[in-house]
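Archive entry. Fields below.
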Amino acid sequence: MPPEAILRPNGDVFDYLAHFGFVPEYRACMEARQIPTGPGSLAGRALVHAKPVQITDVLRDPDFTLPKAAKIGGQRTILGDPLLREGTPIGVITLQRKTVQPFEDKQIELLTTFADQAIIAIENTRLFEEVQARTRELAKTIDHLEFASRHKSQFVANMSHELRTPLAASLGYAELMQEGFYGPPDQKSLDALTRIRASGKHLLGLINTVLDIAKIESDQFTLNMADYTIESMVETVRSAAGSLAQDKQLALKTDVAKSLPVGLGDELRLTQVLLNLVGNAIKFTDAGEVWVAATAANGHFTITVADTGPGIPEAHLARIFEQFRQVDSSNTKAKGGTGLGLAIAREIVEMHGGRLWVDSTLGKGSTFEMELPIRAEFHKRVP
Amino acid sequence: MSKRILVIEDQEDLRGVLRDLLTGSGYAVLEAADGEAGVASAKSEHPDLILMDIQMPVLDGYEATRRIKADPALKPIPIVAVSSFAMKGDEEKARAAGCDHYVTKPYSPMQLLKVIKGFVP
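PREDICTED_STRUCTURE:
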């Protein structure tokens, strides 16, 4: 086996990628002086011609500029074949003989075949390394993003908690004033205090909503599983939302099937979901009615909240469960709300292993339907 | 002589609400701003009831409650826990520490007063 090498051009010189059979003196010599890419070297010539190049006797070639090194290496006949990637040489493979003995066409052909295989292998390795590097970069970016997101959620969770303390104090003082702890209030003061308390409770609701989202996103949101009945849940929602419906002169109807089984789930959170759906229905409906129906079949409750409101355009149906979405921002201004309620509602239902979806016809109304395992288990959220 | 209630709460604003609520309802109010000061005050003052915040610096409400309930002379004093976190297991933890009742923030002062009157009329 004659000495051989693979070289890669690097600016004006070549780097040795691999070599075999070099005597140590030659290796030291070649490492000390780099091989130029011009026609003075075999590799340079192969690069220039972009095809196999043979120097029959390096000691008799007038253009060869490395005869000293060749003497140390004991070379006479040398053969170089460029490694071409899509026509561009990215390296040179060389074979050397210690005697003057030209390589035959068949041998040159063999080297060319080998060079073609080598370029494929080199190219694959390069691509593989590139993919690996990109993957590492991507993993790093994802890590950073996840850290930032968790950090943000933790911050929001802490902040919401901090906001609640002064708000609780304001609400507390307003109640004491209303109750006459600081002297009997007149009617005007009583009205103002009622408004202060209502606004404060509204603000508290908004803060709690933001806190819920932050808890969900930082995986601190868990369910308190216990027995509950749909009847009492619907009743709670009816009494909480009844006055809202009355204010808008809407009929709030409930239709709960008789003798429904006892459910297992987080009653407080499920009530929150139902209250959100009913509250939305009342908020967006200007005339007609809102009704709540509940049935059970095949191990699942089906709870429906339907309204005679304006309906939701089809293009928006899928997006209303996303965070911060209302059909359009003018709605947010007109109807209020954070656009977080439905996102939280869906998370809560899915954590119970259930589903929440909506059907709507523009101009006719919307129907939100929730399918809930009667005996639910806590399903960890998949972000 | 009016009954004495020890309010252990780190937030001055909330102590203010409780002070006005309780003095306005005929109770005498003692105050402490952290768990350790609360335990010391319980030992020296022997109040008739303790309102215990859970989240506090120095010594939290769970540990303060355990220390008070570990003292045979103080054990009969009812402790009402007031927690800002309506988190799973908080009520169980408060009761396990020895709290006699549990209220979640934000509470309505009038509702809290009802709970207190149930223990100390």
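CURATOR_NOTE: Chain B touches chain A at residues 11, 13-14, 16-17, 20-21, 24, 84-85, 88, 105-110 (CB under 8 Å).
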